[in-house]
């Protein structure tokens, strides 16, 4: 018999952890996208049910979301064990068993040609490129010129606690410019996840390929960021549409 | 022709099929999954009152197809893009031979494309030659994610594929349409990666590579390749129906395409029967770019651009003389059948709405 279980987490705490999980193709939270159907809490044991927009949503993407959801929820001190169940997915058995047993994607899908890491790296690259667009827009808005923007390094940024603005120090720290923190930090989070803009003296912004930006190529790189956003939101439009028609069909058959 | 505020727009639907997904033709569960997936795309992006039942969707036949395309002059011409899928469907899903039934009956109205699959080797090269000899094809539609036995796909930049592209060059088959679009269950999504178009396009500068579905969900990769390869074009099938229920998104996608590729390298296609030109043409032509997008991208969806995207660009690729076609259509069989002689005779087109 297991010993007495501690009090479980609150539903809000679980949702907050799940909110950190993104649909890797859309770079949007699975909570915001309404993929989370149901959260069951039984003391330290949490069960999350997810439904994706289509039954044939890429197994690699579905796998990433399920694994990330499990990892995030298990980060909560009050959670001993999180189980994730996908519903209505063509590979739900393999994914649910694999993720909840802690297997690797390759073990669950021996036929898969690409590793889930390679797929994740590619989607992270696109998410970083798209987030960079918003960060750079914020800096342009704050009055910085392209040449200055491409020369920035993480060490030039400073955040004061409790403030929603960042200070950007220019000209050997002689001048400070203020810009909204949110888009820049959101960008940095993704850049660092992929091992970029990590050291204080690294370039802050990069081309989609991960190279420093030549000032002459600034406009083109910025356009590519916008393009990455349009691509993601277009795919989001397809996913939304498919989910809506799927829901209509499921309702009609009830 | 579409009457756009009194101006004629000649419409070449660059992407149509005549398929057979009846249960009797399905030989592998993949065939059923495939048509059901198509049907989901159909219902998701079709106005509710224009949706078909799954039964009519499985096989609609040549008569209905001619009516849908031409009865109201929604389209003036159409280009058949075959999709064989012979591992899923006994007689194939939508083969050149199946398409030829209509295309040879109305050769003035249809362009018939062939296909090749490098996994067929020597036999495949002979088949390509045979298609060229029989139908004088000027283009091929390629489906890199098609299953063939153990193989789940192939790449355009494979050595074997290059041999087929060389054959196309030799035969004068200049237009290479590659399906690079949304994953269709049960096919593997990675086989629709657009990266292989890059190498093929730069290795064969005399061929035109039309990336169907503009690479969605890889619009970014596609536009970046197209910006560097002048012989890469974008086919609007799948993006087009956004005009109907996601107009702001359509505006953004179109603005990106016009910015990266310019107005000469984007081609309209309905993907019939996934979507039907009898409502889609109007939805696309009446769509507007948002004020923000026009400012940001500096592009216009104006009459001149519409004429190019809806017909002139395809006419250029397939050596179609639009003025000659208009004269021909004053008295061809289709115009007689649907009473469209006047439509093509006068300067101002007759009202063609249903």
From TrEMBL, chain A:
This is MIP18 family-like domain-containing protein. It comes from the Archaea. Residues 11-82 form the MIP18 family-like domain. One of its GO terms (molecular function) is DNA binding. Pfam families: FeS_assembly_P (PF01883). It comes from Natronococcus jeotgali DSM 18795. GO terms for biological process: DNA integration; DNA recombination.
Automatic annotation (TrEMBL), chain B:
Gene3D superfamilies: Metal-dependent hydrolases. Keywords: Hydrolase. It holds the Pfam family Amidohydro_2. SUPFAM superfamilies: Metallo-dependent hydrolases. One of its GO terms (molecular function) is hydrolase activity. It comes from the Archaea. InterPro entries: Amidohydro-rel (IPR006680), Metal_Hydrolase (IPR032466). Coiled coil: none annotated. The keyword Magnesium does not apply. The keyword Protein transport does not apply. PANTHER family: BLR3681 PROTEIN. This is Amidohydrolase 2.
């Amino acid at each position: 018999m297991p010993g007495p279980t501690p009090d479980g987490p609150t539903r809000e705490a679980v949702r907050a952890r799940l909110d950190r999980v993104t649909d890797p193709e859309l770079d949007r939270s699975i909570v915001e996208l309404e993929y989370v159907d149901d959260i069951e809490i039984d003391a330290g044991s949490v069960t999350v049910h997810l439904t994706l927009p289509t039954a044939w949503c890429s197994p690699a993407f579905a796998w990433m979301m399920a694994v990330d959801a499990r990892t995030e929820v298990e980060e909560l001190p009050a959670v001993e064990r999180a189980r994730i169940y996908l519903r209505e997915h063509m590979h739900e058995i393999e994914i649910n068993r694999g993720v909840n047993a802690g297997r690797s994607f390759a073990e669950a899908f021996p036929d898969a040609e690409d590793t889930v890491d390679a797929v994740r790296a590619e989607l992270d690259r696109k998410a970083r490129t798209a987030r960079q667009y918003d960060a750079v827009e914020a800096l342009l808005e704050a009055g910085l010129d392209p040449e200055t923007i491409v020369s920035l390094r993480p060490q030039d940024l400073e955040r004061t606690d409790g403030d929603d603005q960042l200070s950007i120090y220019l000209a050997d720290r002689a001048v400070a410019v203020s810009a909204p923190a949110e888009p820049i930090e959101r960008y940095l989070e993704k850049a660092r996840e992929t091992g970029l803009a990590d050291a204080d003296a690294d370039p802050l912004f990069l081309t989609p390929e991960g190279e420093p930006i030549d000032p002459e190529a600034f406009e083109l790189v910025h356009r590519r960021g916008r393009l990455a956003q349009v691509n993601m939101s277009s795919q989001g439009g397809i996913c939304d549409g498919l989910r809506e028609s799927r829901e209509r069909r499921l309702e009609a058959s009830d | 022709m579409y009457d756009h505020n009194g101006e004629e727009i000649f419409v070449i639907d660059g992407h149509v099929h005549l398929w057979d997904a009846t249960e009797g033709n399905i030989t592998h569960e993949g065939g059923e999954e495939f048509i059901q997936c198509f049907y989901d795309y159909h219902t998701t992006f079709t106005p509710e009152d224009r949706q078909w039942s799954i039964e009519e969707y499985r096989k609609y036949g040549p008569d209905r197809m001619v009516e849908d395309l031409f009865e109201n002059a929604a389209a003036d011409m159409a280009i058949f893009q075959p999709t064989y899928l012979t591992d899923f469907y006994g007689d194939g899903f939508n083969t050149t031979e199946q398409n030829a039934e209509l295309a040879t009956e109305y050769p003035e109205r249809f362009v018939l494309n062939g296909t090749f699959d490098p996994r067929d080797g020597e036999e495949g090269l002979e088949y390509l030659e045979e298609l060229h000899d029989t139908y004088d094809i000027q283009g091929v539609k390629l489906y890199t994610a098609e299953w063939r036995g153990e193989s789940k796909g192939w790449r355009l930049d494979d050595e074997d594929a290059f041999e087929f592209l060389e054959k196309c060059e030799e035969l004068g088959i200049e237009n290479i349409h590659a399906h690079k679009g949304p994953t269709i269950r049960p096919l593997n999504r990675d086989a629709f990666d657009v990266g292989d178009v890059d190498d093929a396009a730069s290795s064969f500068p005399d061929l035109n590579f039309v990336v169907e579905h503009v690479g969605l969900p890889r619009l970014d990769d596609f536009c970046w390749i197209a910006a560097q390869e002048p012989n890469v074009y974008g086919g609007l099938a799948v993006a087009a129906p956004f005009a109907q229920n996601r107009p702001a998104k359509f505006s953004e996608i179109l603005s990106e395409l016009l910015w990266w590729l310019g107005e000469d390298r984007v081609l309209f296609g309905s993907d019939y029967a996934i979507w039907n030109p009898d409502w889609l043409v109007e939805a696309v032509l009446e769509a507007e770019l948002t004020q923000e997008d026009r400012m940001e991208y500096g592009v216009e969806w104006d009459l001149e651009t519409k004429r190019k995207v809806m017909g002139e660009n395809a006419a250029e690729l397939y050596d179609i003389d639009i003025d000659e076609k208009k004269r021909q259509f004053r008295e061809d069989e289709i115009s007689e059948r649907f009473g469209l002689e006047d439509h093509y005779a006068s300067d101002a087109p007759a009202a063609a709405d249903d």
